[in-house]
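ESCALATION

Customer reports they have been waiting on this structure for their group meeting. Please prioritize. Original submission:
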Amino acid sequence: MANKTWYLGLDIGSASVGWAATDTEYKIIRKNKKRLWGVRLFDEATTAEKRREHRSRRRLARRKWRLNLLEELFATEVKKVDDSFFLRLKESQYHYEDKTHKVPYAIFNDKDYTDKDYYKDYPTIYHLRSKLMTEENPDIRKVFLAIHHILKNRGHFLLQGQSFKEGNLNNLIKELLELDILHVGFDVTEEVVGKIADISLEKKTLKDKLNDIKELYPKEKQLLEVFRLIFGGKTSLDKLFAIDEYKELDASIKSVSFKEKIYEEVRHNYEQVLSNYIELLDLAKKIYDSIILSDIKKEGKTLSELKVELYNKHRNDLIKLKTLVKNDSRLSKDKKIELYAAIFKEDKDKGTNYINYIRNSEEGKGCSYEDFKNFLVKELAKLEESAAKDHILRDLELELFLPLQRTKDNSVIPYQIQKEELIIILDNVAKYHGFLDEKDESGYSIREKVIQLLEFRIPYYVGPLNSSKKAKEGGFAWSVRNKGYEDTPVRPWNYSKVIDESASAEKFITNLTNKCT
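Update from on-call: job pushed to the front of the queue and completed.
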């Protein structure tokens, strides 16, 4: 056999490898009176689901840790004006009879200022954040609430150490078009990239945007599917990658949509199938995020200012819709009441009316914008034609009608945008609350510590920050501490003193190293 041509065939499965050795006529080769074919069985690989659950719990624990540290930083000043403020916040979820202090209000319980006054002044937390950037001598409790919200929802770290503008749309589109797996039949020039970027940012429907791409490149079917995904549509992997074999994939993974599911939560499923081809999906998601972010964060305005604008638009849109239904001349009074109830009052578990729509940020409840849009278009068809109705239908088609503040799109916001607003708030508040600029024995002021709380991330190679004692008792940790800091609590401002990063990284790699079986 050494001098002859022969073939080795492999059938690789998730828990087995079938093999066969044949000659050039595809006949099984014999050796020592045995046919050279067989199968090797092995235990099926376990998924990382349990580890992901641990990571999720750890992420929530670290968020709680950040918020507790914030409370420690503000405790002395807050207690000067309200010694039960933090206790009321902690017990706000309890029934009245279960609370330590039997008071009707959860946040403000002053004689001349209660929760009613607070929510009248600030309908949403973004109203508070927006006001604190300019408000004179703000209540320290309000400052705490605003910063608490920023640290709790601090944004992603995909552009860590960068200005979020650096991941600009044109660069991402150029990188996408130059991928080998995306077989474009034209030269990728700055002009081409600019045209596609302009189409991406236009306020048009998915269909209109795709028609614009198709008009530019009528023969690029694969490119069209990629941008269908990027513009918020749904496509199948076989069309996206122009690979017929993907038609046979399981239904749960056969299609992909950034709008329907949170990509980061299902990415591992696609990676198992696509391997290196996942790069196309990752880049497409970055472009999708960049387009969404351009709507969320406009030049010259902070995130809170834009969220307040969304709130005002929602309120005005709601007035327009209610007025349209109430004033329709085609329907009788009873029909108007019936239609009004169907849109605004009926509460069904799987309904698609307004009540269910505004719940869509609650876990496991509500309906999507798409479902609500289809429902409302159907109901509005019962009304007479008018300019007001046409305006609502146009906004619905563009998904601009009745915008919500809390949506899945908030997941594209990077921490730099939250940091920008946090600094503006701290700069203003520090004029009236001097304690923010006072430095302690650590060498940092409260203001600097708050910013560090926002920016601080534990590197993956350092892992859980259990103390030496807890680690020895069997805790899942490998971080190495500097001498003299074995049991010192880790804080963002003392992290470099307590943790030996290089030794921790070396231990991380050593733990992963094993002998092949």
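Sent to customer with the following note: The chain has a mean pLDDT of 88.
Escalation resolved.
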